[in-house]
């Protein structure tokens, strides 16, 4: 149960209930549109997996500073979807966008991991208030070099890191917490949050609870090094559409 506003894993009960109610309503609204448009009957049972919460800045700051509470909301949403005999093509992603002009929050739901609604989510396109991506509308070409052995592309706005196999980036090390850290896209930079891990998150030799990453930053999770990189210029004549979700990567 989430209540109060102290600690990394809690948000006010009223805000929690309001956000969860709006998540369900946004899911139902998007599914209703999809049922009218889908060509295949099976597609009508697939629930949206990307939810953008747009809300006043003070409330947005509460959510952004409590990443574990956001994860709990995502898990609760996933459970509700399963109880309704619906399906997900990927774990639900919740992202937060502040808007100082708003008095009340609203949520947009869309399909990220499937092609069910590639043309059904135009509400998000071209709206600078709703975008957490770079000015050209794309997620930055950022990546992590993991333990000096492999490269993991950061192609999602939210990436969980830890030893639990449900994370997007799995680090199979006994000293790494099951849910150790989280990367969140903010404008055109990624911010890393420590998720109350046992051994903490270190960036460039300093323990952090949150830190905006710059190219060359060295992150250490229980001693496992992750080097943050950012490709600002693509090779001449080469273009690539990044996938919505990168392949799962497990670091041994």
Question: How would you characterize the overall build of this protein?
Answer:
By secondary structure, the protein is an alpha+beta fold. The chain has two domains: 13-110, hypothetical protein PF0899 fold (2-Layer Sandwich), CATH 3.30.2320.60; 142-230, Tumour Suppressor Smad4, CATH 2.60.200.20. The chain is 20% helix and 28% strand. It has three helices and 15 strands. It has helices at 13-37, 57-64, 67-83, and strands at 50-55, 93-98, 106-110, 141-146, 150-153, 158-162, 169-171, 181-186, 189-194, 201-203, 206-208, 210-212, 218-221, 224-231, 249-251. It has a six-stranded antiparallel sheet with strand order 5-4-14-13-10-11, with no helix packed on it. A six-stranded mixed sheet has the order 12-9-8-6-7-15, with no helix packed on it. β8 and β9 form a beta hairpin. α1 (13-37) crosses α3 (67-83). The longest helix has 25 residues, at 13-37. The chain is globular, with a radius of gyration of 18 Å. Mean pLDDT is 75; it is low at 1-8, 38-42, 114-138 and 232-252.
Order of helices and strands: HEHHEEEEEEEEEEEEEE
Topology-level CATH name of the largest domain: hypothetical protein PF0899 fold
How is the biggest beta sheet arranged?
Answer: 6 strands, antiparallel
Protein structure class: alpha+beta
- The CATH homologous superfamily of the largest domain is called FhaA, phosphopeptide-binding domain (DUF3662)
Count of alpha/pi helices? 3
Strand order of the largest sheet: 5-4-14-13-10-11
CATH architecture of the largest domain: 2-Layer Sandwich
User: Proportion of β residues?
Assistant: 25-35%
Report Rg.
18 Å
Q: Got a strand count?
A: 15
Mass-distribution shape: globular
Give the overall pLDDT as a whole number.
75
Query: Portion of residues in helices?
Result: 10-25%
CATH class of the largest domain reads Alpha Beta
**Unreliable residue stretches:** 1-8, 38-42, 114-138, 232-252
* C-alpha end-to-end distance: 34 Å
């Amino acid at each position: 149960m989430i209540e109060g506003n102290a600690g990394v894993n809690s948000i006010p009960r009223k805000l929690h209930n309001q956000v969860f109610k709006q998540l369900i309503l946004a899911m139902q609204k998007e599914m209703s549109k999809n049922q009218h448009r889908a060509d295949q009957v099976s597609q009508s049972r697939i629930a949206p997996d990307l939810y953008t919460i747009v809300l006043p800045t003070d409330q947005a700051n509460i959510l952004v500073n409590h990443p574990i509470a956001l994860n709990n909301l995502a898990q609760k949403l996933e459970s509700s979807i399963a109880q309704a005999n619906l399906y997900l093509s990927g774990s639900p992603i919740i992202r937060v966008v502040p808007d100082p002009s708003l008095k009340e929050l609203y949520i947009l739901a869309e399909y990220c991991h499937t092609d069910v609604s590639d043309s059904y989510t135009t509400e998000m396109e071209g709206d600078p208030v709703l975008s957490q991506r770079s000015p050209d509308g794309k997620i930055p070409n950022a990546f992590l070099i993991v333990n000096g052995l492999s490269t993991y592309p950061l192609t999602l706005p939210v990436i969980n890191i830890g030893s639990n196999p449900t994370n997007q980036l799995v680090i199979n090390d006994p000293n790494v917490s099951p849910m150790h850290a989280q990367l969140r896209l903010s404008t055109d930079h990624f911010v890393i949050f420590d998720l109350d891990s046992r051994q903490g998150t270190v960036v460039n030799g300093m323990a952090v609870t949150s830190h905006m990453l710059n190219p060359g930053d060295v992150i250490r999770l229980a001693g496992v090094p992750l080097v943050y990189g950012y490709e600002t210029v693509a090779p001449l004549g080469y273009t690539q559409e990044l996938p919505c979700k990168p392949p799962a990567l497990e670091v041994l």
